[in-house]
Amino acid sequence: LMRKRSGVTLAPFASLQVPVSFAPLSIEEKRATVSVRGAYRNRNLTWVFPLRGAVNAPPYPKAFTFRCKAKTTARKVVDLPLRSLAGLTGPETFTHELICPPNMEGIIGKSLTVNPVEPTITDPNQPVRFQVAFEPLRPFSTSVKLVIVRGTGGRWPFELQLDAMDPDPDDQIVIEANLRTTSSVAFRLTNRFPVYAPFQAFFSTDSAMTLQVHPSTGLLGPVDTQGTVFTVSFSPTEYGKLQRGRLVIQTEDMQWTYEVTGTHPHVLVPQNVSSRVESRLETHIAGQLGKHRHINAVKRNMTTTALAIGRERLLHEDQGGL
């Protein structure tokens, strides 16, 4: 009790604040009462307020990490030491509770299971043991608090780091299409749970632009129904390497992935077909190649006969000009 006051007069329907502090030295429940006494018209009045002090241990300095691919399981038995435990006089059983981010309660509730292995201890230095199973249905990353609760008072928080990575593909889809045409493949998909679930369907950012999916949003039919029809189309615009993409269909609790490959029709090379173009010379023509006599025109023009003919031609041209 932080302040002990006396002689305080209260007006009708007024209130009185009584500050109380709690500074425990060990992790065990503490109980007390606060009494407020007064007098009215020579009559003694007493108000009794019971107090219960619950002690929270400081967070454990190390987080327990659970990491696996979606649609696989990470299972581990963890030893949780109860630091500063006091007042243990015999066997005592501890319970637990999970504290999750409000926006992740649904998916964590379907992915994380905590079961006691050794929840009863007899020694303050003995840890309690719990089995944690992490079975994510879609990729996500978050942390939760596993709180060990003592029935007679005391809470020990431990952090669990949950990392669900991208899963392996559920299936492979191959689509064949000619250039500047569109081919499609359709399949049905149902929700894993017996309820309708809003979904999103899309290709990852590194997928080929020639691949498309329809519909991209809607409601996924529940299990034991015909489900929802998805159509994947391939529209090639040029020849080249294979067009690949990763199709993702996800709901709030589940994710499916498909490896999609777009190919062109296989072309067979013609066999035993004769050419229609004459690509060879006749024998007598080919035999004369390289046998033609080479004439040096410069040397021929410098002979005496050629020079005489040239002078006569020039003389004739001069007489005609006169």
Topology of helices and strands:
Layout: E1 30-40, E2 43-53, E3 64-69, E4 74-80, E5 92-99, H1 105-111, E6 112-118, E7 120-121, E8 128-134, E9 140-150, E10 155-165, E11 171-176, E12 183-189, E13 197-203, E14 211-214, E15 217-220, E16 228-234, E17 243-250, E18 255-263, H2 283-288, H3 297-301, H4 304-321
Parallel strand pairs: 3-10, 11-18
Antiparallel strand pairs: 1-2, 4-8, 5-7, 5-9, 6-8, 9-10, 12-16, 13-15, 13-17, 14-16, 17-18
Q: Strand fraction band?
A: 35-45%
Largest sheet, in brief, is: 5 strands, mixed
Looking at how many chains there are and whether they match, the oligomeric state comes to: single chain
Structural class: mainly beta
Question: What does this entry look like structurally?
Answer:
With 322 residues, the chain is mainly β. Helices cover 11% and strands 41% of the residues. The protein has helices at 105-111, 283-288, 297-301, 304-321, and strands at residues 30-40, 43-53, 64-69, 74-80, 92-99, 112-118, 120-121, 128-134, 140-150, 155-165, 171-176, 183-189, 197-203, 211-214, 217-220, 228-234, 243-250, 255-263. The strands form five sheets. Strands 3-10-9-5-7 form a five-stranded mixed beta sheet, with no helix packed on it. Strands 11-18-17-13-15 form a five-stranded mixed beta sheet, with no helix packed on it. Strand 9 (140-150) and strand 10 form a beta hairpin. The model has no long low-confidence stretch (mean pLDDT 87).
